[in-house]
Amino acid sequence: MTAGQSFKDHFSEQSASYARYRPRYPKTLFSHIAGLCDRHELAWDCATGNGQSALGVVDYFAQVVATDASEAQIAAAVPHDRVTYSVAPAEHSGLDDDSVDLLTVGQALHWFDLPRFFAETARVVRSHGVVTAWSYRLCNVNQAVDAEVGHLYSDIVDAFWPPERDIVDRAYIDIEFPGPLLDLPEFEMSVAWTVDDMLGYLSTWSASKRYVNHYGRDPVAMIEAGLRDAWGDGTHTAIWPLTVCAYRLAD
User: Fold this and answer.
1) What CATH number is given to the structural domain containing 127?
2) In total, how many domains does the chain have?
C-alpha cells in the first residue's frame, strides 16, 4: 500500500496554519507515557503533523522517528537534532522490526486503515513496548463562546466533516485495540488565547477548508461577529479534554 492509495489528506493545504494555531499537548502526558516504557531508545511518532508530539516525546527518548503521509506537514515541522522526520503512511513506516519502545499517535488514529496499522505496530514495537493514541473533541471556553463554536461545528460545517470524525466524537470507544488498555489518569490541553487565535484555529478544521472549497466562502466568517461579541476583550482559557488510550505489546 502506498500513501497515495490510502492517505486521506485533509490538512496539507493549511499546514502552516495548522502548525501555528493547533493547541499543544501537556508535558504531563509525555512524561507519564514515557514512564510506562521499560526502554527509552527509540520512539515513533506516527502522523506527526507539525511535529508537536515528537518534540514532546524527545525529552524522554534518545531518538524519535516522526512520520507523516503529508509532505507539506513534514516540511512545516519544527526541526530537532534527535528527531528524524520522514514522509510515510501509518501502515508502512519503513522502521525495522522490533525497534520501537514507544509509539504515539496524536489526533490521527481515526484516519488509519486500522487492521494494517495494528499489523505494522505489532511488527515494529518491541515486546513490552507501549502504543499510545489520543484525541480531543471541541474545546470549552465559556457558555457563550462554546455556543458559537458549536454552531459552526454542528450547523454550518457539519456536512463537511469526514465520516472518521464520528470516531473522535465517540471518544475512540468503537476502536478495538489489540491489547487491554492501560489505566491512565485524565489529561487535558489548555491555552490562553485571544479571539483571533480561536478564529485561526477554527479555520484549520478540515471541515472548514472543505466548506471553502465547496462554496467559495469562509464558514468561520459566518460566526466571527457573534464569536467576538461572546469573547469580549483579552484572553480566555480554552480547554480540550483528551481521550488517551494505551496498551502494551505482549511477549
Assistant:
1) 3.40.50.150
2) 1
